[in-house]
Design goal:
By secondary structure, the protein is of the alpha/beta class. It has 12 helices and 18 strands.
Length: 387
């Protein structure tokens, strides 16, 4: 099997490649990026005889499709803004595909993937991805699902890469139509910082106030649960506290609108300028606590009783005890490993369907959790009867 890591020089996609080298079986793994020098460095870091590197630019569709047509599967680590173009290339190259974001344009190419007998899974990292599997695990045990509350803490610097900066600006865009909750059969749009709720994450993260965020789980779970009479689906998230304080201040002062301004004859979006500054500043690239933490709460009827299932996840510490998880890698590995596992499940035939499909319909949660455990990433479940 031949795998192409698109955007493979990025800090997250290289972790997917690292996991493939550790746990996967392949005939060729190519690190592909617009930055050929960085792709070469990643290939050298992976230090595997079947790993090589290549230049690719998905905006040059003809060349990108010709290159990708030599591969069986593409793991796509490109940014949200590129996922429509990257998925178009993957579809027309007749490859399986999987990416990290899952914000929607990928589904425009469903018919091509279906006609080719290939599967494309948009959004398979920690959130979305692992969160979807955790919710499915709980919901499948219930006759009726009343509510699903997905929450996470992403403990990483606010702007350690261009794609992360883009995600930050995207998620708190006041005009973004995708920031919704699913309530009583309707998708209801909400503003940034809506519906605050205190969530207790496993240590070392602890309690924090989380807010509604624009994530695909709201839509994909609503579709998956349409026969279980679900009444409420909410997705919340948080970053380190000082990051949230900065975003709150920028939102309060209107910066998150990314209004165009002109300075010294140059026009640019004010948030684009702030994001550029943060990427170049020490503060924008550091934080005290690194890692990821998930919290899924599902209420419904199981064996005739009203129950609440709470699922959380833990991973190796970032303090250096586990060298491959030290510092920022405790975050990037959490996001990159799920995409690698999903790729391996596809290549091993452990998936369902063809076309561009929601994660909930493709993978078995228990099989996926077993793969996570091999990497010392553990899913914890707790069930209680609600009086």
């Amino acid at each position: 099997m031949r795998i192409f890591a698109l955007g493979g020089a990025g800090k997250i996609c290289r972790e997917s490649a690292f996991d493939l080298v550790q746990y996967g079986t392949f005939d060729q793994l190519t690190i592909g990026d617009t930055n050929l020098e960085e792709a070469k460095k990643v290939a050298q870091w992976l230090n595997h005889p079947k790993v090589d590197y290549a230049h690719i630019n998905v905006k040059d569709k003809k060349s990108a499709i010709e290159l990708l047509a030599n591969y069986d599967l593409v793991i796509d680590g490109t940014t949200i803004s590129l996922n429509g173009e990257s998925t178009e290339c993957i579809a027309n190259a007749n490859c399986h595909g999987i990416n990290l974001n899952g914000f929607g344009e990928e589904y425009n190419f469903d018919e091509i993937f279906k006609a080719n007998g290939k599967v494309m899974v948009p959004g398979f990292g920690m959130t979305p991805g692992t969160t979807n599997m955790m919710a499915v695990f709980a919901c499948d045990q219930m006759e009726k699902v009343n509510s699903v509350r997905v929450s996470h803490g992403a403990y990483r610097p606010i702007a350690f890469s261009g794609s992360i900066t883009e995600t930050t600006i995207y998620e708190y865009d006041p005009k973004l139509p995708g920031r919704t909750v699913y309530e009583n059969g309707e998708f209801i749009q909400v503003p940034p910082f809506a519906r605050p709720r205190e969530i207790e994450l496993p240590q070392p993260y602890g309690k924090s106030i989380e807010y509604i965020i624009p994530h695909s789980e709201t839509f994909t779970l609503a579709k998956y649960l349409e026969n279980k009479e679900v009444e409420l689906i909410e997705v919340r998230g948080t970053w380190p506290q000082e990051n949230m304080e900065l975003i709150q201040a920028l939102y309060n002062y209107g910066f998150m609108n990314n209004q165009k301004i002109t300075l010294n004859g140059s026009e640019f979006g004010i948030m684009d300028a702030i994001g550029e500054y943060l990427q170049k500043s020490t503060k924008g690239k550091t934080t005290e606590l690194f890692g990821y933490s998930l919290h899924i709460e599902v209420e419904g009827i199981k064996d005739g009783k009203l129950v609440r299932q709470t699922l959380t996840h833990t991973h190796p510490t970032s303090d250096g005890t586990y060298p491959d998880w030290a510092g920022l890698r405790a975050y990037t590995r959490n996001v990159g490993i799920p995409m690698s596992i999903a790729a391996q499940l596809i290549l091993n035939g452990k998936y369902k369907g063809s076309g561009a499909l929601y994660p909930e319909f493709v993978f078995d949660p228990t099989t996926y959790f077993e793969e996570l455990a091999k990497r010392e990433i553990y899913i914890h479940t707790n069930e209680e009867i609600i009086n």
